[in-house]
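Hi R.,

Here's the chain you asked about this morning:
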Amino acid sequence: MELKSTSSRRDFLRQLSVLTASTAIAGLSIESLSAKNPKPRKIDANEKVNIACIGIGNRGAEVINSLYKTGLCNVVALCDTDMGASHTLGIINQFPDVPRFTDFRQLFDKMAKDIDAVSIATPDFSHFPATMLAMSLGKHVFVEKPMAHTFNEVELMMRGAKKYGVVTQMCNQGHSDPNYFQFKAWKEAGIIKDVTAITAHMNNSRRWHKFDSNMKSMPGAEPVPATLDWDTWLGTEQFRDYNKDYVNGQWRCWYDYGMGALGDWGAHILDTAHEFLELGYPTEINMLYAKGHNKFFFPYSSTIQFKFPARKDMPPCEVTWYDGLDNLPPVPAGYGNVDLDPNIPPPSNGQLVPSKLNPGKIIYSNELTFKGGSHGSTLSIIPEEKALEMQPKLPVVPKSPSNHFANFLLACKGQEKTRSPFEIAGPLSQVFCLGVIAQQLNAKLIFDPVKKQFTNNNLANELLVGAKPRKAWKQFYRL
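And the predicted structure, written out as C-alpha coordinates:
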Protein backbone atom coordinates (compact mmCIF):
# COMPACT_ATOMS: atom_id res chain seq x y z
CA MET A 1 0.00 0.00 0.00
CA GLU A 2 1.39 3.37 -0.98
CA LEU A 3 1.04 6.24 1.48
CA LYS A 4 0.75 9.38 -0.62
CA SER A 5 1.25 12.04 2.07
CA THR A 6 3.01 12.61 5.36
CA SER A 7 -0.30 13.03 7.17
CA SER A 8 -1.76 9.78 5.79
CA ARG A 9 1.40 7.90 6.70
CA ARG A 10 1.24 9.41 10.18
CA ASP A 11 -2.41 8.34 10.53
CA PHE A 12 -1.52 4.83 9.40
CA LEU A 13 1.29 4.55 11.94
CA ARG A 14 -0.95 5.90 14.66
CA GLN A 15 -3.63 3.31 13.86
CA LEU A 16 -1.01 0.58 13.74
CA SER A 17 0.32 1.67 17.14
CA VAL A 18 -3.15 1.61 18.69
CA LEU A 19 -3.92 -1.77 17.07
CA THR A 20 -0.66 -3.25 18.33
CA ALA A 21 -1.27 -2.01 21.85
CA SER A 22 -4.87 -3.19 21.94
CA THR A 23 -3.92 -6.59 20.52
CA ALA A 24 -1.15 -6.99 23.06
CA ILE A 25 -3.58 -6.52 25.94
CA ALA A 26 -6.61 -8.05 24.26
CA GLY A 27 -8.96 -9.52 26.85
CA LEU A 28 -7.03 -7.92 29.70
CA SER A 29 -9.51 -6.46 32.18
CA ILE A 30 -7.79 -4.32 34.77
CA GLU A 31 -10.53 -5.14 37.28
CA SER A 32 -10.08 -8.90 36.78
CA LEU A 33 -6.31 -8.57 36.86
CA SER A 34 -6.43 -6.69 40.15
CA ALA A 35 -8.54 -9.44 41.70
CA LYS A 36 -5.81 -12.05 41.23
CA ASN A 37 -3.70 -11.28 44.30
CA PRO A 38 -5.11 -8.41 46.38
CA LYS A 39 -3.01 -8.91 49.52
CA PRO A 40 0.69 -7.97 49.92
CA ARG A 41 3.03 -10.91 50.38
CA LYS A 42 4.66 -11.24 53.78
CA ILE A 43 8.41 -10.77 53.30
CA ASP A 44 10.67 -12.41 55.88
CA ALA A 45 13.46 -10.47 57.54
CA ASN A 46 16.16 -12.39 55.67
CA GLU A 47 14.48 -12.05 52.28
CA LYS A 48 14.98 -9.37 49.67
CA VAL A 49 12.11 -7.38 48.21
CA ASN A 50 11.35 -8.33 44.60
CA ILE A 51 10.88 -5.03 42.80
CA ALA A 52 9.69 -4.17 39.30
CA CYS A 53 10.92 -0.85 37.91
CA ILE A 54 8.61 1.27 35.75
CA GLY A 55 10.65 4.03 34.09
CA ILE A 56 14.30 3.01 33.75
CA GLY A 57 15.99 5.95 32.00
CA ASN A 58 17.17 9.34 33.24
CA ARG A 59 15.74 9.82 36.76
CA GLY A 60 14.37 6.28 36.68
CA ALA A 61 17.89 4.90 36.40
CA GLU A 62 18.97 6.91 39.45
CA VAL A 63 16.04 5.60 41.47
CA ILE A 64 16.75 1.99 40.49
CA ASN A 65 20.41 2.27 41.44
CA SER A 66 19.57 3.92 44.76
CA LEU A 67 17.15 1.12 45.63
CA TYR A 68 19.50 -1.61 44.45
CA LYS A 69 22.51 -0.23 46.34
CA THR A 70 20.70 -0.75 49.64
CA GLY A 71 21.19 -4.50 49.19
CA LEU A 72 17.57 -5.00 50.22
CA CYS A 73 15.96 -5.77 46.86
CA ASN A 74 16.10 -7.89 43.74
CA VAL A 75 15.28 -6.17 40.44
CA VAL A 76 12.93 -8.68 38.79
CA ALA A 77 11.35 -6.68 35.93
CA LEU A 78 12.05 -3.58 33.85
CA CYS A 79 9.46 -1.50 32.07
CA ASP A 80 9.83 1.59 29.89
CA THR A 81 7.88 2.92 26.92
CA ASP A 82 11.21 3.77 25.26
CA MET A 83 12.97 0.48 25.95
CA GLY A 84 16.29 0.33 24.12
CA ALA A 85 16.74 4.09 23.72
CA SER A 86 20.16 5.43 24.68
CA HIS A 87 18.98 6.65 28.08
CA THR A 88 17.67 3.20 29.06
CA LEU A 89 20.71 1.18 27.97
CA GLY A 90 22.58 1.67 31.23
CA ILE A 91 19.96 -0.17 33.27
CA ILE A 92 19.36 -2.76 30.53
CA ASN A 93 23.06 -3.60 30.46
CA GLN A 94 23.23 -3.62 34.25
CA PHE A 95 20.39 -6.15 34.47
CA PRO A 96 20.67 -8.04 31.14
CA ASP A 97 18.68 -11.11 32.19
CA VAL A 98 15.73 -9.30 33.77
CA PRO A 99 12.44 -9.49 31.79
CA ARG A 100 11.57 -6.28 29.91
CA PHE A 101 8.26 -4.67 29.02
CA THR A 102 7.14 -1.49 27.27
CA ASP A 103 3.66 -1.52 28.87
CA PHE A 104 3.19 -1.85 32.64
CA ARG A 105 -0.17 -3.54 32.05
CA GLN A 106 1.62 -6.40 30.31
CA LEU A 107 4.19 -6.48 33.11
CA PHE A 108 1.54 -7.07 35.75
CA ASP A 109 -0.39 -9.49 33.55
CA LYS A 110 2.69 -11.67 33.11
CA MET A 111 4.58 -11.23 36.40
CA ALA A 112 2.27 -10.04 39.17
CA LYS A 113 2.91 -13.17 41.24
CA ASP A 114 6.68 -12.56 41.16
CA ILE A 115 6.58 -8.92 42.33
CA ASP A 116 6.44 -7.49 45.87
CA ALA A 117 6.87 -3.80 45.04
CA VAL A 118 7.29 -1.34 42.19
CA SER A 119 9.27 1.83 41.62
CA ILE A 120 7.58 4.36 39.35
CA ALA A 121 9.78 7.09 37.87
CA THR A 122 7.83 8.25 34.84
CA PRO A 123 6.42 11.66 33.83
CA ASP A 124 4.09 13.29 36.38
CA PHE A 125 0.93 12.58 34.38
CA SER A 126 1.63 8.84 34.17
CA HIS A 127 2.20 8.06 37.87
CA PHE A 128 -1.48 7.46 38.57
CA PRO A 129 -2.48 4.42 36.47
CA ALA A 130 0.63 2.38 37.27
CA THR A 131 0.31 3.20 40.96
CA MET A 132 -3.38 2.28 41.14
CA LEU A 133 -2.92 -1.02 39.35
CA ALA A 134 0.09 -1.94 41.50
CA MET A 135 -1.75 -1.19 44.75
CA SER A 136 -4.85 -3.09 43.62
CA LEU A 137 -2.59 -6.14 43.12
CA GLY A 138 -1.17 -5.82 46.63
CA LYS A 139 2.16 -4.37 45.51
CA HIS A 140 4.00 -1.77 47.56
CA VAL A 141 4.70 1.47 45.67
CA PHE A 142 7.67 3.84 45.55
CA VAL A 143 6.70 6.74 43.26
CA GLU A 144 8.49 9.88 42.16
CA LYS A 145 7.29 13.28 43.29
CA PRO A 146 4.82 14.85 42.90
CA MET A 147 2.47 11.93 43.50
CA ALA A 148 0.23 12.61 40.51
CA HIS A 149 -0.89 15.19 37.97
CA THR A 150 -4.28 16.19 39.36
CA PHE A 151 -5.83 16.79 42.78
CA ASN A 152 -8.36 14.02 42.14
CA GLU A 153 -5.72 11.48 41.13
CA VAL A 154 -3.83 12.10 44.38
CA GLU A 155 -7.09 11.73 46.30
CA LEU A 156 -7.77 8.35 44.67
CA MET A 157 -4.19 7.22 45.36
CA MET A 158 -4.52 8.08 49.06
CA ARG A 159 -7.77 6.13 49.26
CA GLY A 160 -6.24 3.23 47.35
CA ALA A 161 -3.30 2.94 49.75
CA LYS A 162 -5.74 2.58 52.67
CA LYS A 163 -8.02 0.20 50.76
CA TYR A 164 -5.27 -2.19 49.69
CA GLY A 165 -3.08 -1.97 52.79
CA VAL A 166 0.20 -1.51 50.92
CA VAL A 167 3.36 0.37 51.85
CA THR A 168 3.77 3.64 49.95
CA GLN A 169 6.56 6.19 49.65
CA MET A 170 6.85 9.35 47.55
CA CYS A 171 10.39 10.05 46.45
CA ASN A 172 11.15 13.38 48.05
CA GLN A 173 14.34 11.79 49.32
CA GLY A 174 15.31 14.64 51.66
CA HIS A 175 12.41 13.52 53.84
CA SER A 176 14.76 10.87 55.26
CA ASP A 177 17.77 13.17 55.58
CA PRO A 178 18.98 15.58 58.32
CA ASN A 179 16.44 18.31 57.53
CA TYR A 180 13.58 15.94 58.37
CA PHE A 181 14.92 14.95 61.77
CA GLN A 182 16.07 18.48 62.63
CA PHE A 183 12.73 20.09 61.77
CA LYS A 184 10.87 17.42 63.76
CA ALA A 185 13.15 17.83 66.80
CA TRP A 186 13.07 21.65 66.70
CA LYS A 187 9.28 21.66 66.37
CA GLU A 188 8.83 19.24 69.27
CA ALA A 189 11.27 21.28 71.43
CA GLY A 190 9.39 24.52 70.72
CA ILE A 191 12.23 26.11 68.76
CA ILE A 192 10.02 26.25 65.66
CA LYS A 193 6.67 27.64 66.77
CA ASP A 194 4.15 30.35 65.88
CA VAL A 195 5.22 30.36 62.20
CA THR A 196 3.31 33.06 60.34
CA ALA A 197 5.03 33.15 56.94
CA ILE A 198 7.26 31.02 54.72
CA THR A 199 9.06 32.09 51.56
CA ALA A 200 10.00 29.24 49.21
CA HIS A 201 12.11 29.85 46.12
CA MET A 202 13.67 28.15 43.11
CA ASN A 203 15.17 30.76 40.79
CA ASN A 204 17.27 28.76 38.35
CA SER A 205 16.74 28.34 34.61
CA ARG A 206 13.98 25.95 33.57
CA ARG A 207 13.43 24.02 30.34
CA TRP A 208 10.50 26.13 29.16
CA HIS A 209 12.38 29.43 29.40
CA LYS A 210 13.47 28.90 25.80
CA PHE A 211 9.87 28.67 24.54
CA ASP A 212 7.89 31.54 23.00
CA SER A 213 4.93 32.47 25.20
CA ASN A 214 3.11 33.75 22.08
CA MET A 215 2.94 30.26 20.57
CA LYS A 216 -0.45 29.51 19.01
CA SER A 217 -0.46 25.73 19.35
CA MET A 218 1.46 22.84 20.83
CA PRO A 219 4.58 21.70 18.91
CA GLY A 220 3.98 19.98 15.58
CA ALA A 221 4.31 16.35 14.65
CA GLU A 222 7.72 14.70 14.28
CA PRO A 223 8.64 11.09 13.42
CA VAL A 224 8.26 8.75 16.39
CA PRO A 225 11.61 7.16 17.39
CA ALA A 226 11.77 3.48 16.49
CA THR A 227 12.29 2.51 20.13
CA LEU A 228 9.32 4.46 21.54
CA ASP A 229 5.82 3.09 22.19
CA TRP A 230 4.23 6.52 21.83
CA ASP A 231 0.64 5.44 22.37
CA THR A 232 1.46 3.80 25.70
CA TRP A 233 3.62 6.79 26.69
CA LEU A 234 0.52 9.00 26.33
CA GLY A 235 -1.38 6.74 28.71
CA THR A 236 -4.50 8.45 30.06
CA GLU A 237 -3.97 11.59 27.94
CA GLN A 238 -5.78 12.14 24.66
CA PHE A 239 -3.80 11.28 21.53
CA ARG A 240 -1.37 13.89 20.25
CA ASP A 241 1.33 13.51 17.62
CA TYR A 242 4.84 12.94 18.94
CA ASN A 243 7.33 15.77 19.36
CA LYS A 244 10.74 15.58 21.03
CA ASP A 245 9.73 18.44 23.34
CA TYR A 246 7.25 16.14 25.09
CA VAL A 247 9.69 13.46 26.28
CA ASN A 248 12.87 12.96 28.31
CA GLY A 249 12.19 15.63 30.90
CA GLN A 250 10.63 18.11 28.46
CA TRP A 251 7.19 16.91 29.61
CA ARG A 252 7.68 19.00 32.76
CA CYS A 253 7.15 22.17 30.70
CA TRP A 254 3.54 21.53 29.74
CA TYR A 255 0.32 21.78 31.74
CA ASP A 256 -0.87 18.62 29.96
CA TYR A 257 2.00 16.49 31.25
CA GLY A 258 3.93 18.09 34.11
CA MET A 259 3.76 20.19 37.26
CA GLY A 260 6.38 22.85 36.49
CA ALA A 261 8.90 24.18 38.98
CA LEU A 262 6.45 24.03 41.89
CA GLY A 263 5.70 20.33 41.50
CA ASP A 264 9.34 19.56 40.77
CA TRP A 265 11.06 21.42 43.62
CA GLY A 266 8.24 22.19 46.03
CA ALA A 267 8.34 18.65 47.40
CA HIS A 268 12.03 19.13 48.28
CA ILE A 269 11.62 22.58 49.83
CA LEU A 270 8.24 22.66 51.60
CA ASP A 271 7.87 19.04 52.66
CA THR A 272 8.99 19.29 56.30
CA ALA A 273 7.17 22.58 56.92
CA HIS A 274 3.97 21.17 55.47
CA GLU A 275 4.11 18.02 57.59
CA PHE A 276 5.32 19.29 60.94
CA LEU A 277 3.39 22.57 60.87
CA GLU A 278 0.31 20.54 59.87
CA LEU A 279 -0.52 23.04 57.14
CA GLY A 280 -3.07 20.85 55.37
CA TYR A 281 -4.91 22.75 52.62
CA PRO A 282 -4.93 26.49 51.90
CA THR A 283 -8.12 28.53 51.80
CA GLU A 284 -6.75 31.01 49.26
CA ILE A 285 -4.31 30.68 46.38
CA ASN A 286 -3.34 34.02 44.87
CA MET A 287 -1.40 34.36 41.63
CA LEU A 288 0.66 37.45 42.35
CA TYR A 289 2.97 37.36 39.32
CA ALA A 290 2.99 35.35 36.09
CA LYS A 291 5.55 36.45 33.52
CA GLY A 292 4.92 34.99 30.06
CA HIS A 293 1.58 33.47 31.02
CA ASN A 294 0.06 31.33 28.26
CA LYS A 295 -2.24 28.34 27.97
CA PHE A 296 0.36 25.73 27.02
CA PHE A 297 3.40 25.87 29.31
CA PHE A 298 4.32 27.27 32.69
CA PRO A 299 5.14 30.96 33.19
CA TYR A 300 8.77 32.03 32.95
CA SER A 301 8.37 33.40 36.48
CA SER A 302 5.68 32.86 39.09
CA THR A 303 4.81 34.19 42.51
CA ILE A 304 2.07 32.18 44.18
CA GLN A 305 0.68 32.99 47.62
CA PHE A 306 -1.01 30.24 49.66
CA LYS A 307 -3.00 31.25 52.74
CA PHE A 308 -3.32 28.49 55.34
CA PRO A 309 -5.76 28.94 58.22
CA ALA A 310 -5.01 28.57 61.94
CA ARG A 311 -4.51 24.97 63.08
CA LYS A 312 -4.79 23.76 66.69
CA ASP A 313 -2.62 26.26 68.62
CA MET A 314 -0.80 27.45 65.48
CA PRO A 315 -1.55 30.82 63.83
CA PRO A 316 -2.52 31.36 60.17
CA CYS A 317 0.44 31.01 57.83
CA GLU A 318 1.15 32.50 54.42
CA VAL A 319 3.43 30.49 52.12
CA THR A 320 4.73 32.40 49.10
CA TRP A 321 6.41 30.55 46.24
CA TYR A 322 8.87 32.32 43.90
CA ASP A 323 10.33 30.87 40.71
CA GLY A 324 11.97 32.48 37.68
CA LEU A 325 15.32 34.09 36.95
CA ASP A 326 14.04 37.63 37.56
CA ASN A 327 11.84 36.84 40.54
CA LEU A 328 14.00 36.67 43.65
CA PRO A 329 12.14 36.91 46.95
CA PRO A 330 13.07 39.54 49.56
CA VAL A 331 15.51 38.30 52.16
CA PRO A 332 15.75 39.54 55.75
CA ALA A 333 18.67 41.37 57.28
CA GLY A 334 21.32 38.97 58.45
CA TYR A 335 20.49 36.39 55.80
CA GLY A 336 24.19 35.73 55.20
CA ASN A 337 25.90 34.21 52.17
CA VAL A 338 24.18 32.47 49.29
CA ASP A 339 26.99 30.05 48.39
CA LEU A 340 25.91 26.91 46.58
CA ASP A 341 24.89 24.21 49.05
CA PRO A 342 26.62 20.93 48.10
CA ASN A 343 23.70 18.95 49.56
CA ILE A 344 21.29 20.28 46.92
CA PRO A 345 21.17 18.00 43.84
CA PRO A 346 21.18 19.60 40.37
CA PRO A 347 17.93 19.89 38.39
CA SER A 348 17.21 17.23 35.81
CA ASN A 349 18.39 19.41 32.92
CA GLY A 350 21.99 19.79 34.10
CA GLN A 351 24.06 21.72 36.61
CA LEU A 352 22.64 23.85 39.39
CA VAL A 353 24.32 27.13 38.50
CA PRO A 354 24.83 29.40 41.52
CA SER A 355 22.35 32.25 41.34
CA LYS A 356 21.76 35.21 43.58
CA LEU A 357 19.80 32.87 45.83
CA ASN A 358 19.95 29.09 46.10
CA PRO A 359 16.77 26.97 46.14
CA GLY A 360 15.31 26.93 49.60
CA LYS A 361 13.09 28.66 52.13
CA ILE A 362 12.90 31.36 54.77
CA ILE A 363 10.64 30.63 57.73
CA TYR A 364 9.34 33.52 59.82
CA SER A 365 7.95 32.98 63.32
CA ASN A 366 6.97 35.47 65.99
CA GLU A 367 10.35 35.07 67.70
CA LEU A 368 12.83 33.56 65.25
CA THR A 369 13.70 33.51 61.55
CA PHE A 370 15.09 30.38 59.89
CA LYS A 371 16.99 29.95 56.66
CA GLY A 372 16.95 26.62 54.86
CA GLY A 373 17.86 25.02 51.57
CA SER A 374 16.34 22.16 49.62
CA HIS A 375 16.27 18.37 49.97
CA GLY A 376 18.21 17.33 53.09
CA SER A 377 19.77 20.71 53.86
CA THR A 378 19.28 21.73 57.48
CA LEU A 379 17.89 24.98 58.86
CA SER A 380 19.92 27.72 60.49
CA ILE A 381 18.70 30.54 62.69
CA ILE A 382 19.40 34.03 61.37
CA PRO A 383 20.99 36.44 62.01
CA GLU A 384 24.16 34.78 63.29
CA GLU A 385 24.03 36.60 66.63
CA LYS A 386 20.61 35.08 67.34
CA ALA A 387 21.87 31.65 66.33
CA LEU A 388 24.69 31.89 68.87
CA GLU A 389 22.25 32.98 71.54
CA MET A 390 19.96 30.02 70.82
CA GLN A 391 22.71 27.41 70.57
CA PRO A 392 22.48 26.16 74.19
CA LYS A 393 18.71 25.68 73.86
CA LEU A 394 18.81 23.53 70.73
CA PRO A 395 17.91 19.85 71.18
CA VAL A 396 20.03 16.92 70.05
CA VAL A 397 18.92 15.86 66.57
CA PRO A 398 18.89 12.09 66.02
CA LYS A 399 20.60 10.59 63.00
CA SER A 400 18.58 8.97 60.28
CA PRO A 401 18.42 5.17 60.67
CA SER A 402 17.99 4.72 56.90
CA ASN A 403 17.95 6.70 53.71
CA HIS A 404 14.69 7.15 51.80
CA PHE A 405 15.21 4.10 49.59
CA ALA A 406 16.18 1.72 52.39
CA ASN A 407 13.33 3.13 54.48
CA PHE A 408 10.84 2.04 51.81
CA LEU A 409 12.28 -1.44 51.40
CA LEU A 410 12.52 -2.00 55.16
CA ALA A 411 8.90 -0.89 55.45
CA CYS A 412 7.94 -3.46 52.83
CA LYS A 413 9.42 -6.04 55.23
CA GLY A 414 7.60 -4.57 58.22
CA GLN A 415 10.78 -3.30 59.89
CA GLU A 416 10.20 0.48 59.55
CA LYS A 417 7.41 2.88 58.62
CA THR A 418 7.87 5.04 55.56
CA ARG A 419 8.46 8.74 56.20
CA SER A 420 6.66 10.02 53.11
CA PRO A 421 3.66 7.68 52.74
CA PHE A 422 0.69 8.76 50.70
CA GLU A 423 -1.22 10.05 53.73
CA ILE A 424 1.61 12.58 54.29
CA ALA A 425 2.82 13.14 50.72
CA GLY A 426 -0.71 13.28 49.30
CA PRO A 427 -1.95 16.56 50.82
CA LEU A 428 1.45 18.14 50.04
CA SER A 429 1.13 17.07 46.40
CA GLN A 430 -2.44 18.36 46.32
CA VAL A 431 -1.25 21.80 47.47
CA PHE A 432 1.00 21.84 44.40
CA CYS A 433 -1.96 20.83 42.22
CA LEU A 434 -3.87 23.83 43.57
CA GLY A 435 -0.92 26.10 42.84
CA VAL A 436 -0.61 24.80 39.28
CA ILE A 437 -4.32 25.50 38.69
CA ALA A 438 -3.74 29.08 39.85
CA GLN A 439 -0.79 29.32 37.45
CA GLN A 440 -2.80 27.92 34.56
CA LEU A 441 -5.73 30.28 35.12
CA ASN A 442 -3.62 33.20 36.40
CA ALA A 443 -6.32 33.82 38.97
CA LYS A 444 -7.12 34.21 42.65
CA LEU A 445 -8.83 31.08 43.93
CA ILE A 446 -10.83 30.45 47.09
CA PHE A 447 -10.70 26.85 48.32
CA ASP A 448 -12.90 24.96 50.79
CA PRO A 449 -10.61 22.42 52.54
CA VAL A 450 -13.55 20.41 53.85
CA LYS A 451 -15.46 20.02 50.59
CA LYS A 452 -12.19 20.08 48.63
CA GLN A 453 -13.69 22.40 46.05
CA PHE A 454 -13.13 25.95 44.85
CA THR A 455 -15.95 28.29 45.74
CA ASN A 456 -15.29 31.03 43.19
CA ASN A 457 -14.25 29.37 39.94
CA ASN A 458 -16.04 26.53 38.12
CA LEU A 459 -13.25 26.00 35.61
CA ALA A 460 -10.79 25.57 38.47
CA ASN A 461 -13.03 22.82 39.86
CA GLU A 462 -12.92 21.05 36.52
CA LEU A 463 -9.13 21.19 36.64
CA LEU A 464 -9.16 19.44 40.03
CA VAL A 465 -10.20 16.37 38.04
CA GLY A 466 -8.49 17.21 34.76
CA ALA A 467 -9.21 16.08 31.22
CA LYS A 468 -11.19 12.90 30.60
CA PRO A 469 -8.95 9.86 30.18
CA ARG A 470 -9.00 7.85 26.99
CA LYS A 471 -11.53 5.02 26.95
CA ALA A 472 -8.99 2.23 27.47
CA TRP A 473 -7.65 3.99 30.57
CA LYS A 474 -10.87 4.86 32.37
CA GLN A 475 -10.82 1.61 34.33
CA PHE A 476 -7.85 2.77 36.42
CA TYR A 477 -10.08 5.40 38.00
CA ARG A 478 -12.43 2.67 39.21
CA LEU A 479 -9.84 0.64 41.13
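Confidence is low (pLDDT under 50) at residues 1-27, 350-354.

Let me know if you need anything else.
M.
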